Batch of 4 targets.
Target 1
Amino acid sequence: MKQRTPGRIFIPIIMVVIIAIVMMVTPIGFEQQPGILGFISNTWKHFIETFANGMSVGIIAISLIMLLIVNAINKVVERQKFKKLTPQQQQQYVEMAKQNYFKRLLKSGRERQTDAEEEAIILDHGFDGIKELDNALPQWWLAMFYMGCVFCVVYVLAYSFTDFAHPDVEYETHNTAEEKKVAEWIKNNDITIDQAVNKYSDQQAIDEGKKTFESICATCHKTDGSGGIGPNLTDGYWINKTQDNLFYNIYNIVYNGSPKNPQMRAFGAKKELTGLTIEKVASYVYYMNQEKPAVTPNEGGAVPQGDFIPEWSRGGGAPASATPATPAPAQTDSLQTDSAGE
């Protein structure tokens, strides 16, 4: 008669597995942290939320009661089998039961059958002199197999009828949380035109502004600001003058759009760019206009549009000999305003 696994051993193990499965299908309401420490923190928070869920607690409680019932039934079956043993077998069973369960488990893994036991389980067929034994599968193997079957069923049901393990749902949840964080950060940290500072001499700000310009504004103004669909941002001509200062004029046009050109949309007002980002873009456009050589029409730049503003020109010089063109409605763009702080 084999020793059964004590209830104090198998009940906690199975309960841990059941709790883990219930945690898998219990939605979480907190932001997960990365890394190993984050994993530990996430697991603990998830554990707390699982036991705060009434349905989860009910499932775990019912599972515990069922395991206690199974353990009681096992004890009854064990006693009935014990009565059928001979006195000598009963004594051996009692002595074995006194041994530590884990030591007995390790010992059983190293022992082999006696010759008599092996003879009793030899099957009546063989091949090439090799005989096959009718050994029982190891308990640990059977336990893993049955747990795998249970996990498979739970996983399929959870995937089919809940949001568990759906990458698209996980992405939407995570993305919504991140957008909320960004919106909160912008609300608390973003700037307006009154707080903007011209950073044309700050190389890091210029580099960041250039990246934004090339990804958004270059479509209309070209990467060098020489103009295409939108006006040339390197000359001294400006379609709009909404501010007395060139930098703030550029900032205002990028943020609020061009009053004279609907194609130049309001990147800030429409929340496409933050005030901090526009500050860097405006600084970069100012830097192109004041610190880099102008790209003339002969060099591939767009013909001047708007009015020449002496106080905004390089050193207050006279306008170039090019004839300014009347701004066409189709000609503007996203950064015309930039540069066209116009």
Target 2
Amino acid sequence: MDHHESCRGFRSKWSEWSFGRKALLVVGGTIAGIGLLALFGFIFMWLWNWLMPKIFGLPQIGYWESWGLLVLAKILFGGMRGSALAEDRRRKKRLRERMEAKGGEIHPADA
């Protein structure tokens, strides 16, 4: 089963679910996502406070300072163009379209 078939299967199951089940899934997913984000901030803060003062003599930071550093690092090093996963999907889609246009043949120079 490829990715597209599994997506269609999920969509058909989603349409069969009751409103209560869908609401529970959305609310539960939102709470889990917020919890994971909060945990990520605490893990970054803990790692910073454990390593940076000892290695580089830098001061310890708080929770919101850790989030500020994460956002700053994303801007400086990650850019603002979206996720790498989305870019990878677009690249694969373009490659697939070129393969189909050539009748399934593709050369390394085209990739």
Target 3
Amino acid sequence: MKSAELLKEIKKLSLAEKLLLVEDVWDSIAQENEVPPLHEWQKRELDRRLSEYQKGGVEVIEASKVYEDLRNRYK
């Protein structure tokens, strides 16, 4: 099925059906275990951040603390 045809069918779905479809598509992508290609600017930024981390130039915050702060902020 071509992209335009697929989009036409998707537009007929309810919001709930669209969300379930997105979840299924996302799960299928995750199962492929492929790493998406990065742009050069993304690679440079990752290298810069890693370098700063290795130099001790950034404050490291545990993921659980970040999640807790986000939950509290958006209650």
Target 4
Amino acid sequence: MEHAFYASDPAWDGRFVAAVRTTGIFCRPSCRVRKPLPRNVEYLADAAAARAAGYRPCLRCHPEAAGTVTLRTLDTPVGPMLTGATTDAIVLCDFANRPMIGAQLAAVRRRIGPTVEGRAALLDALESQLVQYFSGLRQDFDLPLDMPGSAFQERVWSELRRIPYGHTISYRELADRVDAGGAYRAVGRANGSNRLAIIVPCHCVIAAGGGLGGYGGGLPAKRWLLDLEGSYAGVGAVAAIRSRTNRAAVGSTSSAGPERLHSMVVQPS
């Protein structure tokens, strides 16, 4: 346990907590705070035991948020997606190959709990609903979600969920909706930190001039998702940005190009 704590090893989260005698605070093993001297640390079974011994939870690593997150990677038309769920809610659905996936997983472990690979009923339900979405048979997801973040992030994510299927808004409009004034970059960062891609439609936020802007899953994936929704919703705004972006040079972090993506899902008639 001592080795895991001093290595800040997230694989041990949920298996014990480390309580610091000199501060009266207990942490999860993965906590990144400055480590105390070993003689000042005792190891307890869980948060309840630490509470009973008079310790307070760390405000950085939130050791009482200890619901285990089950992870599974799903193959989708826009590339592999790493999904995660507790027994109560979906907590992760993001592009497995995006550069930020490590930070996304770290946020899940810090704010929700340790992760394990496996099967979960909610992940089966998510997989089924994603198949329906990619086939044009579903426009909304009716699954319990849990995505804790900063107050600002949660405000942005809540506003994203208000965007109707097949519609787009600009980063500037999103900033206005969350009363962020001209803080477009902060809004963009919060948008990029969304851990529930597609379910919370950050792909529907585009540049003010009509370009795609950025996307964690790569711009071809973003354009493909907008094409899909535009095809089934018949929304003029999406069709308009499709015609503009078809003329633009688009870079990507994804290995799946638009042609391959289109071949992997039922196309609208």
